[in-house]
Amino acid sequence: MAATGLPRGCHNGDVPDPRQGVFETLLVLDGRPVELDAHLARLEASLAELFPDRAIPALGGVTAPEPDCVMRIDVVPRGDRLETEISFREIRQRPELTALHSLSVPGGLGAHKWRDRSLLDRAQARLGGLPLVVDIDGSVLEAARANVFAIHDGALFTPPLDGRILPGVTRARVIELAKSAAIPVHERPLRRNDLLRADEVLLSGSVRGIERVDSLDGVTLAKKVDERPDRNQRETGEVDDQARRSRHESRVAALRGTSGRGRIAQRHSASSGPR
Fold first, then answer.
1. Which uninterrupted H or E stretch holds 122?
2. What is the dihedral sign for C-alpha 171, 38, 235, 182?
């Protein structure tokens, strides 16, 4: 199935409106914002690039109303200033499996976390699943709320940071954990067929952690990895130890093992963290 283009009534076609600003979302666990410095660094980099003539407001220093929740930081241009809005919500339970539907966006959404999500929201309502952003050259870029990983024969593959995708905080952590566990990692362009042929397809994001992808454009994805709990527990020990030390909770993935099979699942426990 070809990627589905979607018209939108924004000021510049399929490009989000920067006049609405940018934002960050992150988990707060045990009263501590997870990976706060990384999220603030990304936010400040976006503000410096998008609004170079405006002073960046002071960020951080906010106390969460609950020990475990989701924190959102919005920065909105108003007049000649940038204003910060910080809000919190409860952590919601999500289904373990996710269905993706291709959405053609020429040039992708770029390296900023835009507040203007009208293109993605309309696409999700129309397509009936989470949009998978695909460039007109066929390159798989990212999901609407997460970075994309494909597992092939014991190695981890993900699209490169070439300016077309968000440099995810969790993406960086997954790559770091995989490399420390001697798991091959390849940052290179991916195509839709790469996902269809993968041993497993995973998404990484700040709030949901790691999500398994169940289908792409209505096609059920094969699960070729070894799901046996005993083997999985043996193979995942190394990464699980690191994950617990870094307070990650949900499932981060990679592959390991002498046979090149078996899934390494790093859990984001109720004390973990982040796209």
1. helix 118-127
2. positive
